[in-house]
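pasting histidine kinase for the record, 436 residues
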Amino acid sequence: MRFSGETEFHRSVLRVRWLFSVVLWAMGALWLVVVPALELERSYQRIRTEAGIRLALAADLVSSHIANNLETWEFEGVRLPSLVTSVTRGSQISISHLELLNGQNRSIMAIEAGPVPTLPLVLREPVTDGVVPVGEVVMTVALDPAFTAAARSGGIGLVSVLVLLTLAHVVGRRMLDHAMAVVGDTTLRLAQQLEQRDRDQRLLARQALHLRQAGEDFAHVARMAAHHLQEPLRTVLAYAQLLLRWHREGGGGIERADGYVEFVRAGIEQMRGQLSALAAYMDLRTKDFSPQPVELEAVVAKAAAAMAALDVRLNWQDLPVVAAQPDRLYDLFFDIFGWSKRYRLPDQPLEVSISAEPSPEGWVIAIADNGRSLGDRDPERMFGLLVHDGDGRMVLGLAAARLTVFMMGGRLWAEPTDTGARLSLEIPNADACTNP
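structre below
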């Protein structure tokens, strides 16, 4: 019995050691696959994110230069590289090539910033003249460092597994338990690194969104300066010249002079309105957007009371509590209701319906009206700062509304309906106030 018991104990020990070895080998194989793959993914995302940000900066710089030099930019192959050279400075990635192509795919500018990579990543970003795309910037980035980091991680993992197996077989069960504790600590550190990587990626994505929105702000300013402000300036200049000619010719007919002065005044008022809209838009980024729980129904009711005098009927029910700044939210709905009123049909009263549905990011608030169809509201330019209405006049677009939603941490988009148009905005729910 004793011999049999010792044999059974020995067999049990062998089974435990064999099972532990199998588990350890399985963990080692998993480590050798997962860790390099995660390192490769992390390095690739880091390279791609930084390259995307730098490419967007280069495209914004070139777009600004093109908007200010519409007639000569295609012949400035010497000056253009100096605009984007700063994009490659201080880079944590290996940028090998940067090129500007025009609309006919002809190279306007080419910068060789490094050697030709073995594993290239090619990214493209369109450039515009302030209104429409006129070409694109092409950036080539080396992915070799990502694979090098993954190979280094795999080598470290392989050495670690061999050391653990050696300790398990040489030292015995106690050292095996210690080795398992080390593995547990290593797994915990790996989980912490992965969590930190996810936080960094979310932060980079948020920064990229702010950078893209800042580029759109710059585009609005450029369009205002290059196009919209020129129209009232031409009006003021033309009628000022007519007024001067009237004076030189003797000043006969005071009614004609009054008409000239009225046109000059109208041009100045138009310019003042456009500059006020631009100032209000740029001032949005300085306002308070700190979120707090807000009853959406109370905000909509307040806006409805202001719109009642304008013969606008608002219908809503079961609106949620959201995370927003109350004053900014009120201004947002007032702007949207005003946009709906501008496109009402002349033969029927304007009705606006507000509804809410939960989404993974918070709440989607749908604002639908029975006015003109979305196609009649210039959907391609409706989110601009100034747009042309059906009569050809310059009116405020939805740029401020979209920027307001963006600063709240959401997004705004338009959709057609059978009887009008619908604007949908996604904003965080009230939990975002306590769990940012």
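Confidence is low (pLDDT under 50) at residues 1-6.
The radius of gyration is 32 Å.
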